[in-house]
Amino acid sequence: MDARAGTPAQPSDLIDVDQVVGAYYDLAPDPDDPAQQVVFGTSGHRGSSLDHAFNEAHIVAITAAIVEYRRDQGTDGPLFIGRDTHALSEPAWRTALEVLAAAEVDVMVDARDSWTPTPAVSQSILLHNQTRFAEGTPGLAAPGSGLADGIVVTPSHNPPRDGGFKYNPPHGGPAGSDATGWIADRANEILRTGVGQVKRVPLETALAADSTHRHDYLSTYVDDLSNVLDLEAIRTSGVRIGADPLGGASVEYWAAIAERYDLDLTVVNPQVDPRWSFMTLDWDGKIRMDCSSSYAMASLVEKMAADAPFDIATGNDADSDRHGIVTADGLMNPNHFLAVAIEYLFGGARPSWPAGAAVGKTLVSSALIDRVAAGLDRRLVEVPVGFKWFVPGLLSGEVGFGGEESAGASFLRKDGRVWSTDKDGILLALLASEILATTGRSPSEHHAAQVERHGQSWYARVDAAATREQKARLGALAPSDVTSTTLAGQDITATLTEAPGNGAKIGGLKVTTADAWFAARPSGTEDVYKIYAESFVSAEHLAEVQDAAKTLVGEVLG
């Protein structure tokens, strides 16, 4: 924990935008250095131009690989492309457009020449593809049917020095490892052979090309919100909403939502600054637009505590795929709000949803969700980390709500059809106001009632040191490798290396007892493994679970 966590950023904390953007164009990656190669995580390729990890060569190579991939897959419809407010996002967007136009790919750029939230890209892809869904199946029509896909240029909540680039295939959600693996391998091959071989056109030519089209992402998204949320209830109740875009892509969307639906909604801070000079520092002293962090959200929390100008205050990260909910009781834990949202939506707020629609959660999300789902008599689908695992269920309607502990979620339209297959922070933020408007109680009050019924839990994530070899062993464990029969004084009830919801490898280990659990997963970027843990006994018992987890994993890894 940095001593300045939660305090306003100082000039020394800010990036030099010209330096970051200049490095994007001036520095070239070493294709033989793993740290400078294209690597797709759960949300695309991320890195900083200053570290030779996000430079023009990377974007040329990734975009060229995507052109080849979509052609091989028979994806011949338009490609929807959006960007957030990071300093590197517009340069990368420009580079991508130059490559896409040269390849004669039909590209849908923002009609306002502005920023586009991740969920708006996902929604536009799905709206285009909705007439191309295969009858009676959860999948899409055959290749060659004019299916659309997309690119979002964003590193999400990452610090201002970073850039990010992710691909969404025709299902509208984050690409799976089969796609990202192929794209990354091909991009790295292009880096090695030389990006100069990739055909490009000047930006002015790309913007004027017949294959480049203007698309009104904002109106398409905002006008459709009434089909997934009860915005009339919010309006008539007079709920006072404070929306803080945290300098991200949702800034103009929130203003448009307020006007379109006549809501008592104030954009708390409409400022956009690629340095994020107005932010408070996160737990480690870095500027990070993490709307689930009490340190990054300190100014909004303080404002609510000081004069309570709003009934609900919300935050979004830079690409608006995450949400933060602030009530009179402070910033809600993401797990707590997910549990409240699930109980509200499945408890009668969406009567037209499919009767068998399941509750989806990642396996590192709170077990409170398990208890809530059981109380609702709803099937629980527990999947590995990564929103991509919810895509098939949301697309088919078999999953009504998919959420992960890092404050990302989406759910079905009122009529049970798919809304988005990527995380939607704007949607979840507005749901908090709907809950207050229709029930008369804030989400934090609903959580207090859940605690009365299901018990209080203590949840945390910590890191433990691990070598590269140990991380590899952790990712390849089998349940039989664990010989312990107890965890922090309780009998072990399950040892998992595959997610029970879909049988997919979790890339680590999860161990459960009657009142506690932990999950251990190797970090993809650092020499540590992450330990997620929860106890329904006490804070002290949580510490015991964390210590026992380190011991158990240490014994297994040797």
Main beta sheet: 7 strands, mixed
Q: Architecture of the domain at 11-216, CATH level 2?
A: 3-Layer(aba) Sandwich
Number of helices: 17
N-to-C CA distance:
29 Å
Backbone structural class:
alpha/beta
Q: Indicate the CATH class of the domain at 11-216.
A: Alpha Beta
Strand arrangement within the widest β-sheet reads 1-2-6-5-3-4-7
Low-pLDDT parts are: none
CATH topology of the domain at 11-216: Alpha-D-Glucose-1,6-Bisphosphate, Chain A, domain 3
List the helices and strands and how they pair.
Elements: H1 17-26, E1 40-41, E2 44-48, H2 56-72, E3 79-83, H3 89-102, E4 107-110, H4 118-129, E5 149-153, E6 162-168, H5 177-193, H6 203-208, E7 212-215, H7 217-224, H8 231-237, E8 241-244, H9 251-261, E9 265-267, H10 298-307, E10 312-316, E11 323-327, E12 330-331, H11 334-349, E13 358-362, H12 368-375, E14 380-383, H13 391-396, E15 399-404, E16 408-411, H14 425-439, H15 443-454, E17 458-465, H16 468-475, E18 486-487, E19 490-491, E20 494-498, E21 505-512, E22 516-522, E23 528-535, H17 539-557
Parallel strand pairs: 3-4, 3-5, 4-7, 8-9, 8-10, 13-14, 13-15
Antiparallel strand pairs: 1-2, 2-6, 5-6, 10-11, 11-12, 15-16, 17-23, 18-19, 20-21, 21-22, 22-23
Helix pairs in contact: 2-3, 2-5, 4-7, 7-9, 8-14, 11-12, 11-15
